[in-house]
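Just wondering, does anyone understand what follows?

——
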Amino acid sequence: MSNLGAAGSRALAGEERLSRGEAASIVASGKSGWIIPASVVLVAFVTYCGVLRFQFVYDDLPQIVGNPAVHSWRSVPDYFTKHVWSQLYPTTQGNYYRPIFLLWLLINHSLFGLNPVWWHLTTILLHLVVTLLVWALAARLQLSSFAAGVAAFVFGLHPVHVEAVAWISGVTEPLAAVLLMLSLLCYIGFRDASPTAARLGNQRRLPFIGALFFYALALLTKETSVILPLIIGAWEYIAPFRANLDPECLSDKSEAATCNTTRDGLEGRRLRLKTALIRSCPFLVLACLYLVARMAALKGLGHSVTQLSTSTILYTLPSVLWFYIRLLIWPANLSVFYDIPLIFSPGVRSVLLPAAVVILAAVTLVWASRRSRPARFAAILVVAPLVPLFNLAVFPEGELAHDRYLYVPSIGAALLAALLISHFPAAGMTRLFGHPALQVASALLVLCLLGAGTAMQSPNWSSDLTLYSRAVQIAPNHNTAANNLGNEMFQRGYYADGINLYQEALSRNPDFWLSNYNLGYSHYKLGELDEAEHYLRRAIAISPTDSDEFVYLGLTLSKMGRLEEAEASIRNGIGIRKDAKGYHFALAYVLKQQGRLGAALDELKLETHYNPEQSSAASRQTSEIESGGASQERK
């Protein structure tokens, strides 16, 4: 076995500390071995390149295509003082404070307009960067070059990432992961500085400043990034590597192995715990500053979307965690939505069996962690990012879990998979590519399965039709899946099919706002005004925060000749979103019917003011009104 392989194997098994010479050999090998990471990037890109043909889907349409906030640099200050959806739902409380994510969307729009090819390309590139950073982290964990390559391949090809990579708005995951990984690696570089660099001081502080900088950006990208101090503390407490040692412990007269030995035992654990707390403090301070900014922007740390009791959350969590475990191990039958119901009372199948699986998985992680320090750190990387998801009350009904939430946890899962494969029997085995045949064959089998799973399931995100058809197939009782497929069917001219899907959702939940609104809109488009009024009024009664429902109710009433009611309803919509495209046109139309031509002209001017791209249409409407007014004066 090579120097790298032998040293790496001993470190993984926790059998022997690395000497300074062995550590240097590993670092040198990692720096020169770019064949494996280059291969990982190439294979991952080929696997995902079909995504470049996909359209804007799901939330891309309101969040990117129809969102003026990401079309103009004038909106940038609002990114730091409001929630993500504030431009579309200004009166609704939000839980997503993500300025850097919005800035990413703005940059993409400035560069590429609304051509989805380039948006998809930048998302794929981000995923490839994260994959390379996983390889770099594996090297920092002193995994062998083979194990580091397997970890990167597993992460890069894992099908659970399809949602985060194939869906443009899912870019929050790879974008936050890039920043988190850069922060962690900068911190490890700071702690792994040589004695000479440590004495220089300023040069050693640069990686630490970089770690704080990238962490700040990660916090402003996705709120779950707040868990990094826990990961930093885990690194300090767990890792027996040179990066874990204080500079004075690395003088020319002290070997890393000797220094690590002094940290064993009760006194050593206390010292490592103290170091972990001290070293994570700057990151905790940064997290606190972020929470202050978040509270100011959101008017609170977060807001409950679904009112759930503590017991309901506790009963439901086992099935959610079992869902995540299953996806990490067997990522098949992926969908944008899943039927994961809330559990209101304990039961054998609903609570006890999922809880038993979760406990078994936890015991397995603990067992693996006791045998290997890198496995211990990898286990922390799996568990820590899931902790913020335990508050199920912040999720809308029917959206307790999504594939994309496993993007960062799968980094730890990829490391664990690589550690497992690299511990398969090696003695007396035939060698392939310089490594034990069983390990190589196992790795190739796993990677082929993962790559095939990704290639087969990513086309589900090619269009809204394929996306929601798949969702209804996987989650037949999911109201949002049925509603969204109904939207797509209606837009394609299959009106009866669309309305049937809306009705199907309402049969399960008569107070489901989306289907009430969409039924109202559909009947309005079909000229069925009585039905349109009924469902639009019901939608308003359920949730009076959406501006469109008021405007379409106003247009419905205007066609019924109830012009005063129509005006009042449209003005309610404008009161919620005064700059929405077409709203002032709608009011001008009603005012023109009332004969209030001057007021109608004023509304057309406001439409042009808020939406300059509407100027030509406004000019035509103005000419028609002015010519109509002149005709009336001649009479």
